[in-house]
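Folds vary. Our protein:
___
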Amino acid sequence: MTITFVGHGYVGLVTACVFADFGNNVWVIGHTPHKIDRLKKGDPLIYEPGLKEILVKNLKAKRLHFTLDYDQAIPASDIVFITVGTPTNKEGVADLEAVFDVAQTIAPYLKKGKTVVSCKSTVPVGTNKKVEQLINRNKAKEARVLMASCPEFLREGTALADSFHPDRVVIGSDSPEALKLLLTLHKPLKSKPVITDLASAELIKYASNSMLATKVSFANFIALYCEKTGADSETVLEAVGLDKRIGRAYLNPGIGYGGSCLPKDVAALIHSSRSLGLDASLLKAVDSVNDLAKDNFYRKIIKHSPGRRLAVWGLSFKPETDDIRYAPALYIIGKLLKKGYTIAAYDPVASENVKKALGNKIEYALGPYEALKGADALCIFTEWNEFKEVDLKKVKAELKKPVIFDGRNIYPPEALKKIGFTYFGVGRHL
């Protein structure tokens, strides 16, 4: 079938490539000429393992098309997916301007007959109904919109694997015809479909991300407790995670969660709960503990650093991505800079994005060992695999002082102590 994605961020581009790979004719609409030109040439614009290869493959097969224009893609489409960003403001309110703008823009181009319009953007409950109303006010009389909600659950860094092998496919709609078409589209995925109404589909995404954020903050609270009592967070959380009712995933102590989903989705659910007259104390605590985890690690560096020049490994909010949105690393670096520290940082893929944000406020190393030269201590903010495989004796030789602040607990403390390091992890024995 022919489908269109309006928006080519992580969700839109990855999902478009996957559905094109299944043999569909896929259009992707953007609004920035130079980005569309780069996409047409096989440049995915973002770092995501395997994305460039699948993009180029489907461009060559002529199943994937990028355009600035609506007049060719929308009228030909059986399904139109809205995949634009929904960031939150300072109050935690989801900004839906882009979603509503897309709804009004696509409406006049919808073909005569039926078209499924499905929102993949993360939106508060009730948004899809508003999108449907906007489209109906602006479409031709002969066009009929079948509204649906298909939230995405991909993780940056494993987005392709998550798209090809999802835990579940959620499809929400009040239209049996829309459900049937979307089930047909998703059939190659072989995962259990969850068929529901629009409101439930919208809430499932917020509920899922808030639960994941809760597990991260719970792990960080336990880590803080361990630091006060001498217990070891890794041992405690490993044992907790062995309980099948709980599971080990996301019970990893560190410097907090970041990225484009968890921070904004928790904030948006807090705000929408407030508007419904609900007490969101649980989620507020999740958010507060996330801030506490970052601040606690910052204070640890301030208290124990033997000097004011620091090497930093890792800038992205997680490994296998160049995304720095809400990255804990940038939050801590910002506070260190205000205290007069000098930072030399290395990240395998995120440095260019950080340059746009911080400019020359920090130094950018071309490799992990280069960042160490002349540094008084090493701070690890992202758990890239290459950091786990370094020669620790060489690390010790490059540093002025053998001190490591491990914000992701990637090293075993005892092994580093044997080499001669002073080691500070999260919730671990010092």
The chain has a mean pLDDT of 95.
